Amino acid sequence: MADNSPRTDTSTDMEADVKLEDAHHGANAGSNASDHEATKNGDSKALRRLAQNREAARKSRLRKKAYVQQLESSRIKLNQLEQELQRARQQLMTVRGERVQGVYHLGGYGDQNPHGVGGNGVNGAINPGAAAFDMEYGRWVDEQIRQMCDLRAALQAHVADNELRVLVDGGMAHYDEIFRLKSIAAKADVFHLVSGMWKTPAERCFMWMGGFRPSELLKILIPQIEPLTEQQLLGICNLQQSSQQAEDALSQGMEALQQSLADTLAAGSLGSSPNVANYMGQMAMAMGKLGTLESFVRQADNLRQQTLQQMYRILTTRQAARGLLAMGDYFARLRALSSLWSARPRD
């Protein structure tokens, strides 16, 4: 029994060492497997991010390509519109020249009065302020066409809202500029603005006090900017109602002015040799009343400008962009209609 005891202890120690070594190897194997799995997961995430980045880059390239194509298409359309605008201008000058020929001859006055009403003489002369406005308006239309092309391309390319807002703000500022130019022109020759001789014939058919009717323009724009929220619809309905009321008030004021002018000019006997003193007195009274006409045109333009600004505040950036584009296209179609009507066959 004494001889067997040392061997038993040695065997037990060796078995314990083997178990510890196996446990150590098992722990190392588990650790290596965990590390491998973590590395594999990290690689998978990196590959997914890489794939996402590649897809985003591909979409960005496609958007840029589409944007460039839209710009090229817009450039071609701009050239076509510029040619159309030039034809409309030539037609406008032709109509103006025909309009001023022989007015006083038909009235039996010969050449006694060399100056036409509103600054347009029978020989085709035009008030310098009105002529300057016509040139500025032509440049304004050219710039509007360019802005509309940029706006159309941006909407179709789905640019970010902050980029789109820059274009929308530019479009709104452009309308502010035409109102400023009209304010200057009204001082020089208010009849020129009211007559609409700076517009094409089709545009003149829809003119109200030297421009567009705000309430009618809202009717045209609403279908182009839908869908609208309930709050937006309420705001636009209120705006349309207030615009209509203001238009009615201005129209009534204009009718009263016209009636007052007619009464003043018709006072006394007509058809017989007038008393010079009475005649000059009538003209002085009529001239005084005509000063009110400029005020009416200014108020009408203020209403147009305020309506656009309030509409802009109601809409989102993209809705405002679509609204500006719809306005530009509507007026461009009126100009195109005039050109087509002028060029129609006359059999």
Helix content: over 70%
Evaluate the radius of gyration.
39 Å
Average pLDDT, rounded to a whole number, is 80
Which geometry do the CA atoms define? elongated
Question: Are there runs of 5+ residues with pLDDT below 50, and where?
Answer: 1-10, 95-124
Instruction: Give the SSE string.
Output: HHHHHHHHH
Quick tags:
single chain, 347 residues, mainly alpha, 9 helices, coiled coil, transcription, sequence-specific DNA binding, bZIP, DNA-binding
Structural description of this entry:
Residues 43-92 form the BZIP domain. Belongs to the bZIP family. The chain has 347 residues and is mostly helical. The chain has one domain. The chain is 82% helix and 0% strand. It has helices at residues 4-99, 103-106, 128-156, 161-195, 201-205, 214-225, 230-266, 276-314, 317-342. The protein is elongated. The model is unreliable at 1-10 and 95-124 (pLDDT under 50).
Concise overview:
With 347 residues, the protein is mostly helical. The chain is built from nine helices and no strands. One of its GO terms (molecular function) is sequence-specific DNA binding.
List the helices and strands and how they pair.
Layout: H1 4-99, H2 103-106, H3 128-156, H4 161-195, H5 201-205, H6 214-225, H7 230-266, H8 276-314, H9 317-342
